[in-house]
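S1.2 Input.
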Amino acid sequence: MTSIRTAAKWLAPIALLSLGACATPFRADVSRFQALPAPAGQTFAVKAADPAKQGGLEFAQYAGLVGAEMQRVGYVPAADGAAADLTVMLDYAVDEGKERTIAERDPFYDPYWGHGRFGGFYSRPYVVRTRHGYRYIQGWSDPFLFGGGFGGGYDVRTFTVFTSGIDMKIERNATGERLFEGKAEAKSRTNKLPYLVPNLVEAMFTGFPGNSGETVRISVAPEKK
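S1.3 Output.
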């Protein structure tokens, strides 16, 4: 029981670190081409680039996010029924994902295990610190469990990576002139658009409208729990 309590004492901080590592920033690659005039009271309306999405509740939620960002940088939403000076065309999507395989070093792997005389399945004493001092404990090495027979302590994991993105264009209605083209793309372990699109919109409007022809990596802070 003493050795179990000792192991739990050391494993608990590692588990907490693992949970903390999950709250990583959302990162997106943002490319923008722009010839936007400085905001001076121009009105705008947000529309779906895909007519099938126009009028949908999901699109309305994302359009609201874009509209709020447009207002934040100085543009004015067009009144209901009124012609807007600018039209913002928005599209969004996520792919079906691709399988990825990675090999990670096992932090509990002991490189000194692996030279046994019983074909790799053998016992070896190791030292554990307890409240009564240091004790020798007998342990077992299994190369199929700990990776000792396949490169020395690597854990191989397979998971799915999804690529998501938004595409945004702004046109001047009076002339049809294209004033802005932007794309924000990210890779993630989730394909949930209600999570992805708000982060992509925030990335798109970080430093908006940006330098024309430049692609930048934008990090969005993780949500506070």
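S1.4 Remarks. Strands lie at 26-34, 43-48, 76-77, 86-94, 98-105, 122-130, 133-141, 154-172, 177-188, 214-220.
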